Structures are given as C-alpha cells and as structure tokens.
User: Fold Methyltransferase from Ureibacillus thermosphaericus.
Amino acid sequence: MLIFMIVTTIVILQRIFELFIAKRNERQMLQLGAYEVGASHYAFMILLHVSFFISLIVEVIVFERTISPLFLPLFIIFLLVQSLRIWCLSSLGMYWNTKIIVLPGAQIVKKGPYAFLKHPNYFVVCCEIIILPIMFQAYFTAIVFTLLNFIMLSIRIPIEEKALMEATNYEYEFNKKIQHHS
Assistant:
C-alpha cells in the first residue's frame, strides 16, 4: 500500500505541476495571438482525468488490490513512458498545453517524438491510463478509463487537427511526410 500511495502521490503532483506549466504556456500563446478551440469538451477531459485518479485510489483501497506480480517490469515501462512525456513537453516548449491552443501561422513542431509520431503525448496518456492501474491490479479502472479516454480522444484529436490545418502548416507537413514515405 505504501508503494501505491507514493507512486500515486508523485503522479498526481506531477499533473498539478503540469497544469501550472500549461497555464503559463497558455498566457504566452494568447499574448502572441493564439486562441483556444475545443473548449466545450475540456471540462469533460478534466473530469475524466480526476475521476481516473479517484477510481484508481478507491479501487486499490476499498477492494484491497495488491501490487502486481509484474510490478517491476510495468514500473520500468511506466518510467520510460514518463520519460517520453517529458520529451513531449520539452519538445513542444510553449506550444505544449492541456488545452487546444492554436497560434495562427505557427510552424508545426517536428522535433523530438513529434518527428516520429503525430500525437506522442496522447500515446503517453493512453499508456499511463492502462499501466498505472495494472501495476496495482486495478483492472476495472484500467479498462473503464482506457475506453473513456479513447472516446475523449476520438472527439479531441479531430478538433485539434482541424484547427491546426486551418491555422498552421500542419496539413502541408503531414502531406509532405506521407509523400516522402510513398
């Protein structure tokens, strides 16, 4: 139980710290003329992520879940995923946000993990929502929130991509990558 409390507390504190980074980045971007899109689903996304942690904590404590026999390899994978999360944030710099903030005329970031994947930060979140609960045998939380997250991303990603195509060089960069691989 102690390991669960330590890991969960660290992850929650990390998320809170990231919200401060997102708020700072949002202020910088808005000063440069950026605007937010998809605000109507943002509250649901926050609710999803807060509910994930509540569900995880309740499932582990109330149902007395124990550490998975695969905890060590899962924890190593989780740490690698956290490294990818940090790489995503540092690669995007001021463009990283929990909201969809679009700066008209901006050049799409094509460095770091964004040179290889279209949405590596969403990949990170998907991995975390599966791995963190499984490390503590909270299978209900892992399954339910993986499904809810896929629903959320099926709404969020098209909104984000449409906004980026309308306001930046996103479509050009994406088509260039497709033509380069053809």
